[in-house]
Amino acid sequence: MTGTKRYVAVAVAAAALITASTAAYGVPTAKPAPAAARPAHGSVLSAHAPALPARTAPTARIVAPDEHVTEPGGAEFWLTPEGKHWTTLDNPDPQFTNVVNGNIDLHTPGVSAFVEGTAQGHVTLSGVYYGGTGTASRVTVRTTAGTLHAKPLELAGNPGWGVWYVSTDLPAADENYAVRHVVVRDTTGGVYSRLDLS
Fold first, then answer.
1. Residues 33 and 69 in one domain
2. Which of 9, 28, 146, 187 lies at a C-alpha separation of 20 to 30 Å from 50?
3. Digit-coded pLDDT (tens) for 111-120
């Protein structure tokens, strides 16, 4: 009986050794990734970074003929195939700039500028740009009181001209407020047309 117990004990010990050796050699151990392939602590591999959306340059707002656009100071602008129409709070009678009567050469880049002030010290600046190549994108207006960024409007169908407008409060001490430069840039950042008055 004692011999049987010793035999069973040896068999159990042998089975434990076989199982331990199988576990040690039957499962491959994981090797650490090479240093070049491991991301630094707290970083993400660039292969998993999301792609950023491409930025596109703004273009002029496209309006329907006779569609009125009101700027914050109360002036209204609307376009027809013949040209620019507008009113201001101090001058509610419609004004008009004709772009098809031959006074403007739509094949030569150019910009016009109007400055209209109110008794309350508010100023509306606007004009027509025309003749440039590419697509009008941004309008920068430099005045004696600083730089403004105007909004461009166009009719559909690439008519070769558009309208820009912006308003601001006139500095109380500036009695000789004037426009110095108007630059219209295209979607690539190049100059579509410009006006230099100084």
1. no
2. 187
3. 999 999 887 7
